[in-house]
Structure formats: structure tokens, C-alpha cells
Amino acid sequence: MRGKLFVIEGGDGCGKQTQSRLLVDAIKKMGAEAIYTDEPSAGGLGDRIRADLASTGTHLSARTLQILFTGDRSQHVEEVIEPALEKGMHVVADRYWPSTVAYGSALGMKKEEVEALININFGMFPKPDMVFILDLAPDTAAKRVQARGRQIDRHEKDMKLQTALRQTYKELAKRFGDGWHVIDASRTKEEIHREIMSFVEKSLKA
């Protein structure tokens, strides 16, 4: 039986990695196989993307950056996600194509360009079984990012961008509806995890 793809999305500092790893552990405790994956991937295009995000000088345009993300995703799907799903393993993705669409829109790409991104990603990559949007106020998320004690990239610093991202994610959830869940990420990690698991358990038993 083919595995299922669960995606954790949201702005920077909302707890995606924490919830993704908690979900992988929980699925394994249920007796199933699961892997964690994130974007951008390690090496190749992923390294180029991280270098651009960390740059304080001239950087890539929004359109070019999101096209790079899509290319990186294509390789990652071919090498990691699709083989795992075919083996019957469940995949928990810390970011997937909704990030490309949300960031592209929030960074000012034209509406027709954003729609093109949706069509390309919809047509080329596995459809998520569920998408969880971790919704958190940008100022609260910024405090979490700063508390990590690591270098902050330009997107994480941009409160206007993070506010636009939050709205765009909600619009995507409303647009695609079935299987998309907006989760209040202002609560404890345990409360958030329990809500996510309430949906995932039903999906795995279906």
C-alpha cells in the first residue's frame, strides 16, 4: 500500500520542524514507517537557495527564487519522497509546494505567475494527503526565531513579508479546502500535536 504525505506549513518560527518530528515519532509508535523531510533539500539547488537567503547584498528575484525552489523540489521528490511513498512509508514534509506559492505571492509575484506555480506544482508532484498550516502572529514567531540564537535570514527579519505570508496561507487553505487544516500555533507544542494527530489518525485508519 502506498504511503501518505503529510505536510506541515506556516511562516518562519511557527514550529514546523518541531511538529513535523513529533508527527514522525507518533506515526512510528502506531507501528508504521515514516520519514521526516524538509525544504530546501541538502546540496545542489538547496545550497544555492540557502546562500541567497543568507545574503545581505544583491539577491535573486522572487520569481527566480521560487523557480529554484520548484527545481529543488523536483529532485527531492524523485530521490526521496516518491521512493518512500512507493515503499509504503509515510512522509512528513516540513514545507512543500504551498511554501513556494505562499512566498511567491507574499513577495509580490504577479497573480498569473503565482497561478503558473500552482499549476506546475500540482501537475508534477505528489498531492499531499493533508496539509497543516501552523498559524501564529508574526511578532510572536519573530521572538521564537530570535531565541534560537542562530543567524536569521532576510525573510525571517521581514515582518511585512511574514504578515503577508500568514494571510496567503489562510487563503490557500480556504481555496483548497479538503485536507487542509489551519492550526492555532500559539498553544503549547503538546496541544498542537494532539490536534494534528486527531486528523492524522483518521487518515491512517481510512
What would you note in describing this structure?
- The protein has 206 residues and is α/β, with parallel strands linked by helices.
- The protein has one domain (5-205): 3-Layer(aba) Sandwich (Rossmann fold).
- The chain is built from 9 helices and 5 strands; from the N terminus they run βαβααβααβαααβα.
- Strands 2-3-1-4-5 form a 5-stranded parallel β-sheet, with helices on both faces.
- The longest helix has 25 residues, at 62-86.
- The chain is globular, with a radius of gyration of 16 Å.
- 39% of the residues are buried.
Topology record:
Layout: E1 5-10, H1 16-29, E2 34-38, H2 45-54, H3 62-86, E3 90-94, H4 97-106, H5 111-124, E4 130-135, H6 138-147, H7 154-157, H8 159-176, E5 180-184, H9 189-205
Parallel strand pairs: 1-3, 1-4, 2-3, 4-5
**Cross-sheet strand order for the largest sheet:** 2-3-1-4-5
Number of strands: 5
* Poorly predicted runs: none
Tally the helices: what do you get?
9
Order of helices and strands: EHEHHEHHEHHHEH
Counting structural domains, the number is 1
- Gross CATH architecture: 3-Layer(aba) Sandwich
CATH class: Alpha Beta
Given helix and strand content, the structural type is alpha/beta
Could you estimate the helical fraction of the residues in percent? Answer: 55-70%
The major beta sheet can be summarized as: 5 strands, parallel
Strand composition percent: 5-15%
* CATH fold naming: Rossmann fold
Give the CATH superfamily: P-loop containing nucleotide triphosphate hydrolases
Shape: globular
